[in-house]
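Below is a typical protein record.
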Amino acid sequence: MKLSKKIPEYIPADSYLEVSNSLFRDIYTLFCGRQKCPSLYSFGPAVRECYLLHFCLDGCGDFYANDQHYHLEKGQGFLICPNELTFYQADEAHPWTYAWIGLSGEQVSHYLDLAGISSRTPVFRCPDVDLIRSDIDDMIAHHTLSYSCEVHIQGVLMKILSYLIEVSSHPRQKEENGNSLYVSRAISYIHKNYQNPVSVQEIADYLSLNRSYLTELFVRTLHLSPQQFLMKYRITKAVDFLTYTDLSVEHIACSCGYANISSFSKAFKKVTGISPSQYRNEHQTYTS
């Protein structure tokens, strides 16, 4: 492919969000966006300071990294690693529309490796482009500077990573993908039953797995035990209740699967660093 020598005029993203992070360390979103590119629109050669995932939602284009050329079409994506010189360009006849997520954290490479995505294998599958588009738009919609939005965006990021692991075509990840399906089903079960007094043993029984093995899968995939994931998800929902409703703390505790205010408050402070009442005083947007 002959590259355009002309540096195109900067084209602003159709949708874009920079994310403030104060809660997460292993992996978190720095920014995300979506753009329909004009013919031969390009970026680079340039070096990035963070990990950057691009998802081709429509059309096609070309990506150059580590002296390799990759032609990408709808349903594929590519990874840019920190401090790597890369160049990418929209196709002349069928320029791509793509979405992107900038990532940072201590374990980014580990999470991406679970999906077989690395500097050595930067191109990956993402066949359900409607899902990716919807998730990116969901992130952008939660633009308010709040713990609630921060946790929500983290949840969407983990959903996208789970999907990339599930559809990975990298041969050495097949066993990991099978295991990630158990984790995905466990997460789905938690989402549907977090309001009930659900236990890790109950989740393991639902999946016909040994409890210890389920815990091993969670820790390997998410760096969290099932109990920790359940607690964080419950607190995510509690944050929404505290921010957007006038329900009492007692009712919120019950609605999030806690038997009493004491255990709820202890879990809430463990995740957010402050009490439920303090969080509500600082962040509530509900008005009667």
In short: Strands lie at 15-18, 28-36, 42-47, 51-58, 60-65, 68-73, 76-80, 85-90, 97-104, 123-125. Confidence is low (pLDDT under 50) at residues 1-11.
